[in-house]
């Protein structure tokens, strides 16, 4: 909906604003977890937030009026519904073959991006808890589940605040009313390669920070620094691909005068992009499952074995940085 109604040059600002709203929700959730770790309370907050985010859009949405044609019933075509369902994969394949070059390349890199980010973002909290236990020692009274959980949440909360500050800085660079940011904004508008350079730097920082997290997994202080750096740069890996795709989709939508019946609509682009995200996450889940299964049946004697889930993410991040 945003792609079809917002001009291309305003797409980066919209994506940044969306990222700020998401980060604000993450800070609220982490703050609740820091005060009283409760899965029920966090779930309730997330459900209410999602409802309040979607309902206003649904309430003010005005569907496009379409000229209805009288339905023609074909008695001989009993398998019309089945053929329509079977045509979806073929249509998706044809759309993938005719993607604009920038969107096609972004989707390919997004597979590696999700393969790198998915295990890190999902296991980072457990990694911090295990690092806290490894630092304090197994027999310490301070290593209660609630204490280690709050220690990890505290680090993630600080990192999320840093992520918000980073996004606010980027928003300032894109502010058209700021004269100091005008040259940078013109450069980014005229050369979309600059966005991929930012993406490459984010991947490189992710790879270095994740590698450091593996090496210094037994020190909670070092692990906290690595985790904070990872979470601080995470908004860039979300903002850049969505900005590139939304920019290109808005351009194509404008060239076709907003006709949704023509191939290559924004919905098609975003659907294929979500497929690329799903592929990367699925591969990451499979790899994490294999590594976890191996760790359960091996006596490594190492502390904080959760960090051993991160080496594939390091490799994927470095390869993605080179492809950008």
TrEMBL record:
A GO molecular function assigned to this protein is:
sucrose:proton symporter activity
Q: Does the keyword Aminoacyl-tRNA synthetase apply?
A: no
Location comes to: Membrane
Q: Which InterPro entries match?
A: MFS_trans_sf
What membrane topology does this protein have? Multi-pass membrane protein
Q: Name one GO cellular component term.
A: plasma membrane
Q: Which residues form the signal peptide?
A: none
Tell me the keywords, alphabetical order: Membrane, Transmembrane, Transmembrane helix, Transport
Residues annotated as transmembrane: 12-35, 41-60, 155-174, 194-216, 223-247, 275-295, 307-323
Listed PANTHER family: SOLUTE CARRIER FAMILY 45 MEMBER 3 ISOFORM X1, SUGAR TRANSPORTER
- Name under which the protein is recorded: General alpha-glucoside permease
**Species:** Colletotrichum higginsianum (strain IMI 349063)
Organism lineage reads as: Eukaryota, Fungi, Dikarya, Ascomycota, Pezizomycotina
């Amino acid at each position: 909906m945003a792609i079809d109604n917002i001009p291309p040059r305003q797409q980066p600002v919209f994506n940044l604003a969306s990222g700020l709203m998401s980060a604000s929700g993450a800070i609220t959730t982490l703050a609740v977890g820091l005060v009283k770790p409760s899965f029920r309370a966090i779930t309730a907050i997330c459900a209410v937030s999602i409802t309040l985010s979607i309902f206003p859009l649904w309430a003010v949405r005005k569907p496009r009026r379409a000229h209805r044609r009288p339905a023609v019933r074909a008695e001989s075509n009993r398998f019309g519904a089945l053929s329509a369902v079977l045509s979806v994969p073929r249509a998706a394949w044809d759309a993938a073959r005719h993607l604009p070059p920038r969107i096609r390349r972004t989707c390919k890199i997004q597979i590696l991006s999700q393969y790198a980010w998915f295990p890190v973002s999902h296991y980072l909290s457990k990694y911090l808890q295990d690092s806290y236990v490894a630092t304090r020692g197994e027999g310490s009274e301070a290593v209660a589940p609630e204490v280690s959980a709050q220690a990890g949440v505290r680090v993630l909360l600080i990192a999320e605040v840093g992520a918000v500050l980073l996004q606010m800085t980027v928003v300032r660079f894109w502010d058209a009313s700021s004269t100091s940011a005008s040259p940078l904004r013109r450069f980014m508008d005229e050369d979309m390669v600059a966005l991929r350079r930012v993406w490459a730097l984010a991947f490189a920082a992710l790879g270095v920070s994740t590698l450091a997290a593996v090496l210094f997994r037994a020190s909670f202080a070092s692990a906290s620094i690595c985790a904070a750096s990872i979470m601080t740069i995470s908004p860039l890996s979300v903002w850049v691909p969505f900005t590139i795709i939304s920019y290109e989709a808005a351009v194509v939508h404008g060239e076709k005068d907003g006709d949704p019946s023509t191939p290559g609509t924004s919905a098609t682009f975003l659907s294929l992009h979500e497929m690329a995200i799903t592929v990367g996450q699925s591969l990451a889940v499979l790899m994490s499952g294999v590594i976890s299964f191996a760790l359960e049946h091996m006596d490594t004697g190492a502390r904080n074995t959760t960090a051993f889930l991160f080496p594939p993410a390091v490799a994927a991040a470095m390869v993605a940085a080179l492809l950008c």
